[in-house]
Amino acid sequence: MTGPTSPISQDVLLGVEQLSKSFGNVRALRDISLWLPRGQITALVGDNGAGKSTLVRVLSGVHQPDHGRVTFAGQPVRFADPQAARLAGIETVHQNLALVDELTVWQNLFLNRELVRRLGPFAVLDRGAMQVKAREMLARLSVNVPPVRAKVQRLSGGQRQAVAIARAAGWGSKLVIMDEPTAALGVQETARVEELIAGLRAEGMTILLISHNFEQVLRLADRVWVLRSGALAGGRLTTETTGEELVGLVTGAIAG
Amino acid sequence: MTTDIQTEPERDERIGRPRVLERLVVRPEIGALIGAIVVFLFFSIVTDQFLTTGGVAVWLDDAATLGIMAVAVSLLMIGGEFDLSAGVMTASTALVTAIFAANVGLNLWVALLLSLLFALAVGLFNGVLVMRTGLPSFIITLGMFLALQGLNLGVTKAVTGTVQVSGVASAPGYESVGFFFASTFELFGTQFRVSILWWIAFTAVAALILVRTKPGNWIFAVGGAAQSARAVGVPLVGTKIALFMTTAFAGWLVGNINVLRFTTVQANQGIGLELQFIIGAVIGGCLLTGGFGSAVGAAVGALIFGMARQGIVFAGWDSDWFMLFLGVMLLAAVLVNNALRRRAERVRR
Ligand SMILES: Nc1ncnc2c1ncn2[C@@H]1O[C@H](COP(=O)(O)OP(=O)(O)OP(=O)(O)O)[C@@H](O)[C@H]1O
Ligand SMILES: [Mg+2]
């Protein structure tokens, strides 16, 4: 295989070996092996249906792989559910954003991470504190800050995306996975999210970025992996590849 | 409120701050509250007895047991599920208690405990089956409804040779158990049933859990967007199973309030009540699609039921009119709730 040579294990935050996942007859992932260098931005590209989101869902504990191994921070891991992945330090912005429309912005930001106050033997929600912190989390990345007390249902596509990103970025986790984070965003918001991603990297976070925008990938990422029909078509350092080469790998014009 | 100003430099001006009235209007229980006031005023005016303390005691009593169930069912519906076995459950739990106390001769406290275990087991079974199979709870609990109905009749006939169990009053422990479940207390010179206190307590606890605790958020999340909730680690399966068990627990409470008060249970009791519970919850603002609703609203929905059912009796009308009233009330509540929701969404889009 061409591309980045096998890394020294210490520099790898997350490693995937021979991972496979099928849904009935659909082999969504076939023997995928790749790794994410610690503290870097790694991109994952591929055509629609290539298996990117499936890989994201396996890494974030939504799906369990049929075969293969995942190692995280040097340890073999098998996330039984999304909570396990979250506790290990993996935050995900899912392609469908995984927001609850009927809940407010702040409730979504803190869903399952609620701040509570002790009231005798009871733990009651500290709504005030969550609203204040929610504003801070959003102010960091969004040009068009959605009101934290509005229901998510009423937000624009870009505002919804901002909420999902703020939620994933706000917890100081080790790995943030973003599945097409700028797909619904305008020019200003995209720039803001790209700044945020670069900022997270500067803070030492490792990022897996799924994107169809090759310019964005080349601009932001350190490495890029290409998926084609569920299999790995190749991996490149972004400094050593071009948009044309990535297109070739994605479409199969260039063999991995 | 200084923090508000500091941390909101770039708030979207177009959205604006929701005004008090609008905030009130988006509350799910608002339709039920308006309905309750209308029904209350109506029967206070057209009948003499309705507004006397004796009258109040009667319609509160009617609303109490229904209210406990409607509140439990509202939590379940907010969590995105139904329980059609909730009605017969109130008979099954009463029968279990009665048979163990009156026919087996156990102390009533022990019978009560066995009945509780039975209820929780049924709730667990409902929940596990729904979550394991992924089938709609409507179907699963319909099966449970039929099964319990058959079991109630079959076991009662086998044990007593009749279709009812009686003799609870002579079972050991009746005095002390009865104090908790079937006594009365005096207020303004009138005897009120203790079930009213159970209803208020159950509603208060349910409402607090729903809007002030973490599991409350989980209930809204699993009912509104199950997969999104799961993706952020909300214990989807556990939350839903707990909701089925809560409904079964409420069935236990109500079944035993009834059996200790009347000391007799009919094996075919409770059939059809499951729809009344759902109607109470829907009048109270619950959506059939889940993710939205209110425990207090469901309690108010049950209150409307009780007021209307007894108000019609006080007015001396034929009780057949109650069904007409119920139909109109349900449609009115749903239409009002729907209109208010639409408006609320449009206002702040
Ligand atoms: N839960 C599922 N059940 C059945 N098939 C699935 C499921 N999830 C994904 N697939 C299938 O697996 C394949 C890969 O889908 P996936 O969503 O991973 O693609 P993707 O690379 O993220 O595409 P896109 O760029 O459109 O987001 C597709 O053929 C899809 O239909
Ligand atoms: Mg995808």
UniProtKB/TrEMBL annotation, chain A:
PANTHER family: CARBOHYDRATE TRANSPORT ATP-BINDING PROTEIN MG119-RELATED (PTHR43790), SUGAR ABC TRANSPORTER ATP-BINDING PROTEIN (PTHR43790:SF8)
Taxonomy of the source species: Bacteria, Bacillati, Actinomycetota, Actinomycetes, Pseudonocardiales
SMART domains: AAA
Span of domain ABC transporter: 14-254
Protein name: ABC transporter family protein
Source species of the chain: Tamaricihabitans halophyticus
Taxonomic superkingdom: Bacteria
Pfam families the UniProt entry points to: ABC_tran
Single GO molecular function: ATP binding
Automatic annotation (TrEMBL), chain B:
Subcellular location, record wording: Cell membrane
Species, as recorded: Tamaricihabitans halophyticus
Keyword Metal-binding in annotation: no
PANTHER family associated with the record: ABC TRANSPORTER PERMEASE PROTEIN YPHD-RELATED-RELATED, XYLOSE TRANSPORT SYSTEM PERMEASE PROTEIN XYLH
Annotated function: Part of the binding-protein-dependent transport system for D-xylose. Probably responsible for the translocation of the substrate across the membrane.
Keywords noted in UniProt: Cell inner membrane, Cell membrane, Membrane, Sugar transport, Transmembrane, Transmembrane helix, Transport
Organism lineage string: Bacteria, Bacillati, Actinomycetota, Actinomycetes, Pseudonocardiales
Membrane disposition: Multi-pass membrane protein
Transmembrane feature ranges: 24-46, 58-77, 84-102, 108-130, 137-155, 192-211, 243-263, 275-308, 320-340
InterPro entries: ABC_transp_permease
Any one of the GO CC terms: plasma membrane
A GO molecular-function annotation: transmembrane transporter activity
Name assigned to this protein: Xylose transport system permease protein XylH
Superkingdom assignment: Bacteria
